[in-house]
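Lab notebook: predicted structure, single chain.

Context: the supervisor wants predicted structures on file for every construct in the current expression panel, including those that have not yet been purified. This is the next one on the list. No modifications to the sequence; it matches the entry in the shared construct table.
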Amino acid sequence: MKGMTMSTGNGVMVGGAMMTPDKDIVDNAVNSTDHTTLVAAVKAAGLVETMKGAGPFTVFAPTNAAFEKLPAGTVNTLVMPENKQKLTTILTYHVVPGRLMAADLRDGQTLTTVEGETLMVHRNGNAVMLHDAKGGMANVTIADVVSKNGVTHVVDTVLMPTR
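Prediction complete. Output recorded below exactly as produced.
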């Protein structure tokens, strides 16, 4: 895919900030201006400590623009305390146990998320796409953002589980 950025061993730029392998997933994400909605959602769901854990985790991280594609008011509703469980379900659907680099993702592969449902991988050359449980599709726009407790792949769409 044109525009897909691969990382070097030294880090990769995401949202105007250098993501480096010596920081954990959360500490890298908080510096990205493209992931302020995701960081706020992780905080609202109470998942900060989990995502700072040993892992390793593979995170498919939706950008602010991905969250903006949701129906108007969705994000504001999800971050309300009474919707914490639904928010947690959606966020953990973006996390897969283990450290899966883009090169490890095969066309037709099924990934079981921390949430319990699956994501389907589709590849076309270097382009990686994910299909969610509701038929939605997300493109990996920046792959292989390595953190000390896993790897993040930036996606352009919020993935939705069935529940």
